[in-house]
Design a protein that fits this description.
The protein is mainly β. The chain has no helices and 15 strands. It has a five-stranded antiparallel β-sheet with strand order 4-3-2-1-5, with no helix packed on it. A hairpin with a 7-residue loop joins β2 and β3. The radius of gyration is 22 Å and the shape is elongated. It starts with 7 loop residues before the first strand and ends in a 9-residue tail after the last strand.
Amino acid sequence: MNIRKGLYIQWNKEIFKIIDFLHVKPGKGYAFVRTKLKNLVTGYVLENNFSAKYKLKKVKIESHSYRYLYKERNIFYFMNDSSYDQIQMEKKLIKNINIEFLKEGMKIPIFFHVKSEKEKVFLFLKIPSTIILKVEQTEYVKKGDTINNTNKIVVLETGARLLVPSFIDTGDFVKINTENKSYIERVKKQNSNYFT
């Protein structure tokens, strides 16, 4: 079995990346390969042993840089940065990120499973782990609450709602952890590129 780190395989109807492996030859029984696999869509890491005779199904994965254009109902529109081809994607297909942080103009890599020259199947897209967004709306906070270190909900420019400290005002820019949907800090307005 020609196995190596970084290899993409299809197993149990899902696509994984081999992030580590070890050939094992026990004193009794058959040789096997102990692997550590990362699910490409969910990011979940698991360990699995494959018999040395097991035929792994290799798959080809491609990623291209796209720019997020806009959303219409439950459809998201993206444009390839190189070819300017546009693709559209249903909201239900985008499972691995907090899509409420997608900002128009944001550049993101989109990953595809290449089944043939003519058939490419969308797998997932990535957004930066931290981004900076503008606060569009804030809840009213009573005087004195700012001293007590309370939090409040704000609405960001993308429509996402976020829990932030009470001193954050409308028009402020906040840095956000997109993976766990949490506030990091208030920042001064940077250039037009809010992504870090």
